[in-house]
Amino acid sequence: MDVHGGEPIVSRFAAGVPHAADLREQWRATSLAEVWLRPGDWYHPAVDALVEAVSEDRTPDAAAQRLGAARGAAGVGIGESLDDLSCLYRALGRSADPQALRALSVGWVEGHESLPVHSAVRDPATGLPTADYLGERLRETYGEALRSGADVPETHCLVVLDVALDDLDAWRRMARSATVGRTLDQVFGDGHPMGVLTDGLYAVLCPRGQGTPQLAQTLRRVIEKNAEILGLSEVMRRPTRVWVEKLPASHADAVELLAQLSR
């Protein structure tokens, strides 16, 4: 039973007429259980404005953009912010509003650009490491191979993913980047150094083996499936390009390879 008169929150949601306070708590509970990393920084006053707009069937764009700006300024990643907004619509039993997602993304870009310092280690759109970080992990890989007498071109390779399209606005690039970042984590998990080479182009350092080409094709299928589920197929290169790139003999040449791939 809740504090608003005895009717269970679940029954109100089933009836399609949630009170704003109930919807906010349902949204928070869903987000904290599924996507939000730090419970203490979830609430912002823009949350209430967005909940009121949605529950009253008003245009949520202004409130969503304000919330996005707050998330970006607080250092919350774009993927986490979009996932959080999707939890609001799941609490209502609806598909996420594309215009609200767009507005939140635009606000997030504005808020993130207001930060005085940006991390050089991770790309904020995807949550993935940068190309410079991947270059350092390659240096470690070549150093370990030199000490052990191994041959890096025989033991390791790059799996490269290209979903780039021209002429996308900022929110679509951000939504695509967040989707790709989550998918790479989903397919490869921890222990595979990866990085964003440029907008829409990603590389993962993998052990070279007979299963690597199949893993690359699995990545392509999962990327395309996730994009379809999230309504982002039109912002992905089709067909998605995924290939296995052989590494050169030296670390310097490997860094040059990353630069060539980025062009």
Report on the architecture of this protein:
- The chain has a 4-stranded antiparallel sheet, with helices on both faces.
- A hairpin with a 2-residue loop joins β2 (194-198) and β3.
- The longest helix is centred in the last third of the chain and has 19 residues, at 170-188.
- It contains 11 helices and 4 strands.
- It has helices spanning 9-15, 20-34, 45-55, 61-73, 78-92, 98-113, 131-148, 152-155, 170-188, 212-229, 251-262, and strands at residues 156-162, 194-198, 201-207, 241-246.
- The radius of gyration is 21 Å and the shape is elongated.
- The chain is of the alpha+beta class and 263 residues long.
- The chain has 2 domains: 9-113, no CATH class; 131-262, Reverse transcriptase/Diguanylate cyclase domain (Alpha-Beta Plaits), CATH 3.30.70.270.
How much beta, percentage-wise?
Answer: 5-15%
| Strand segment count | 4
CATH superfamily label of the largest domain: Reverse transcriptase/Diguanylate cyclase domain
How many structurally independent domains? Answer: 2
Q: Order of strands across the biggest sheet? A: 2-3-1-4
CATH topology of the largest domain: Alpha-Beta Plaits
Q: Level of helix content?
A: 55-70%
What is the N-to-C succession of helices and strands?
HHHHHHHHEHEEHEH
What Rg is obtained from the alpha carbons, in whole angstroms? 21 Å
Going by helix content, strand content and strand pairing, the class is alpha+beta
Q: What spatial form do the alpha-carbon principal axes imply?
A: elongated
CATH architecture of the largest domain: 2-Layer Sandwich
| Major beta sheet summary | 4 strands, antiparallel
CATH class of the largest domain: Alpha Beta
Q: Give the CA-CA distance, first to last residue.
A: 59 Å
Count of DSSP-assigned helices:
11
How would you state the average pLDDT, rounded? 84
